[in-house]
Amino acid sequence: MTKRPTRGPEDKFGICFTVVIVIDRSEQRQKRILALHLRFIFTLMLCKIVNERRERNATLITGLTKYTEKSQDCYPMNQNLSETLLQQLKESLYTGDLLPGGELESQRRMSESRGVSRSTVREAVGQLEAEGYVEVSHGGKTRVKNLLEPYFEMPVGEGKALGDNPEFQRQVLDVRAMLEGEAAFYAAIRATDDQLKALDEEYRKMQQRGQRETTLEKAKEDLRFHMMIAESSHHLLIISFSQLFYTRFFNAIYGVLTRTLKKYGRYPDGIRSQHSAIHQAIMARNAEAARTAATEHILYTRRHLENE
After folding, report:
1. Is 54 helix (H, G, I), strand (E, B) or coil?
2. Phi and psi at residue 12, in whole multiples of 5°?
3. pTM for this structure?
4. Within 10 Å of residue 216's Cβ, how many Cβ atoms?
5. For 79, 86, 206, 307, which has the most beta carbons within 10 A of its beta carbon?
6. Could you give the 3-state DSSP secondary structure of residue 21?
7. pLDDT score recorded for residue 186
């Protein structure tokens, strides 16, 4: 049974959200609804980016189909080398091969690795900067920008103030349930062998976590594991949103862990086994199992907060 949808306030994308209050849903159906809500939010973000940039390859941002690398002969013969390189770099951005916050290789190395002149590389990178995909520092390093950051603004200190609010903490968990389920799903499908190896190593470090570590250190380690999953998804919106969300609302995530440890004196018994289930599903490339395990992991913690 659902309450009639209500119109939400117009957001920064110039679109009104539709808010649906769900009542008496089975837990399995709630999970599906959470996933649908996340895809809806990503669709709004995608529409804004595509409308602003109007790039012909912008459809690759969606991440709805598995990425197939294109060769240079896919481009028209009359396209010059700098335009070809520009489109290749954009595809690497859209598919998460170049991560937001990461650095492009130097222009000299790019020239050597791609077999083009320095002037061709300089022109392509300059166009990337002009279109807002990258920024060049005074030291000459070129950093990939997070394309969602302009739409994720909040007052200075607001994240810290909200972080101690129990209701806001529950809302953060709601979003994490959606976000991490989708991240695990795509990571199971798209992660490279090297990424799976790195994720496996990080998981084993988590299992060896010492009792002397502070709550803050544990929170950072937990988020590092989940951020690695997001970065392995090769889904630009999931990666970009995860980076901003975990940074902006770290205090709320840390607050949840603090309250949980104070209440039980340790991690709840199910947390360790849930991390194991997420890890095993991704390693086995079982996307549906990975999504289910990651979503349940967050909802499990949320249920503990509801019992307070």
Report:
1. coil
2. -70, -15
3. 0.71
4. 12
5. 86
6. coil
7. 97
